[in-house]
Design a protein that fits this description.
Elements (H helix, E strand, L loop, with lengths): L1 E3 L5 E3 H19 L3 E2 L13 H6 L1 E6 L19 H7 L3 E8 L6 H10 L18 H9 L6 E4 L20 E3 L1 H8 L33 H5 L4 H9 L4 H15 L4 E5 L11 H24 L7 E6 L23 H4 E8 L6 E3 L3 E2 L3 H9 L16
Parallel strand pairs: 3-11, 4-8, 4-9, 5-11, 5-12, 6-7, 6-8
Antiparallel strand pairs: 1-2, 5-10, 9-10
Helix pairs in contact: 3-10, 9-10
Length: 388
């Protein structure tokens, strides 16, 4: 895909991606005080050895729904991400050019992140990924128990993300807080219906429960919450992502999983066409990422041995693309929709470094494999050397 530059020359998707990357790099060097890193840098500073690996924990947050640079990593957008800019990025290794060459649907793109392969499944089908997931590699290769790998996702469409079609009981347990809330309040008049709404799903799309899914009766035994407690806490929260983060923090405290995957999704309210709600979603996601990092520091099981990775599944359409709808959608597949970013902070990362060489979203799983000591045999991405 190409566009015309003002001089009439074609501008390739690679040119646009490089321009986005350089813009992010320069903005962060000025605003967050980060230092340009080299792709030739040596291995990460994390202590090696089997004992260290067994203690190491990884949390992945998808900055779900994607947000454009105009509303984030650009001078006019910096007010929307104060926590990322002032607290997290100065502590992180930041990658300015992460590309997604797959299908730009939220479930299929998240499945690709979790498998290291660009999945081609129907985004609106209640089917598992076609390739083994990071959770299966982690648990099977390392002999980890079921309570050591969890997924928390707000949307009903993610209920099959924890285990692939190859599944043999080695997947992650998936918690869908909105589904739990819906079951717990079935038939009741509530004042939190907004928490049960999926921004991009129709009422006709309600996947059946399947796989290792967390059920309502497990609230008390695993999270030490009665159904009434859960409902009461939900009533005080303003968004599905807040409900998910609340559950994730309970899991961290009570189960301390070594691999925890949290899918944020509030930003996808952009599909409604309400720009103010889209901005609100960005600001909330920014705050919740900081809250989770603070929780890592406060929990003895996590402090000092946890790597947190934050990345979008993909971006959104550029304003100048006539085939798209700007912030509202991600239907064109242009470079703005495909070129995102990733930050990694905590154990094994260098603080205040920015890297602008290209990586792909499918590089996440091989990198996690190198961090944790498993072999993702079906993954097609490459290890990001600066993180291992």
């Amino acid at each position: 895909m190409s566009r015309s530059a003002p001089c009439g020359c074609a501008v390739s998707a690679r040119d646009v991606a490089n321009r986005l990357s350089c813009s992010r790099r320069d903005f962060l060097r000025t605003t967050a005080g980060v230092t340009l890193g080299s792709a030739l840098m040596g291995a990460s500073p994390f202590l090696r050895g089997e004992s260290a690996r067994r203690k190491r924990k990884v949390i992945v947050i998808t900055f779900g729904g994607g947000a454009r640079d105009q509303e984030t990593f650009a001078p006019e957008g910096q007010e929307n991400i104060p926590h990322l800019l002032q607290e997290l990025i100065p502590q992180s290794s930041f990658f300015t050019q992460v590309t997604n060459q797959g299908i730009l649907g939220h479930y299929v793109a998240t499945a690709s992140l979790a498998t290291g392969v660009y999945e081609t499944l129907n985004n609106f089908s209640a089917v598992p990924p076609d390739h083994r997931t990071v959770f299966e590699y982690f648990r099977r290769d390392l002999g980890r128990p079921a309570h050591d790998a969890w997924v928390v996702a707000p949307s009903n469409g993610f209920n099959r993300i924890g285990e692939s079609s190859w599944g043999q009981g080695w997947g992650a347990t998936v918690v869908l807080p909105k589904r739990l809330l819906g079951v717990a309040t079935s038939g009741k008049t509530t004042d939190y219906d907004h928490l049960l709404h999926d921004n991009y799903e129709t009422p006709l799309y309600v996947p059946q429960l399947a796989g290792s899914e967390f059920e309502l009766q497990q609230l008390e035994t695993i999270l030490q919450l009665s159904v009434d407690d859960f409902i009461q806490h939900a009533r005080t929260l303003s968004s599905p992502d807040e409900l998910s983060v609340y559950i994730a923090k309970r899991l961290m405290r009570l189960q301390a999983p070594s691999l925890l995957w949290i899918t944020m999704h509030d930003i996808d309210i952009a599909h409604s066409g309400a720009y103010s709600l889209y901005i609100e979603g960005i600001r909330r996601t920014d705050r919740l990422c900081a809250e989770l990092w603070a929780a890592v520091q406060s929990e003895p099981e996590y402090a000092g041995n946890t790597t947190l990775l934050i990345l979008p599944d993909f971006g959104r359409d550029a304003d100048e693309d006539a085939g798209g709808n700007g912030f509202q959608h991600h239907r064109t597949g242009d470079a703005a929709s495909r070129t995102t970013w990733m930050m990694a902070l905590g154990a094994g990362t260098r603080q205040g470094m920015v890297f602008d060489h290209p990586v792909q979203s499918i590089d996440l799983v091989p990198t996690l494999g190198a961090m944790l000591g498993f072999s993702p045999s079906q993954a097609q991405g490459k290890v990001i050397g600066e993180l291992v």
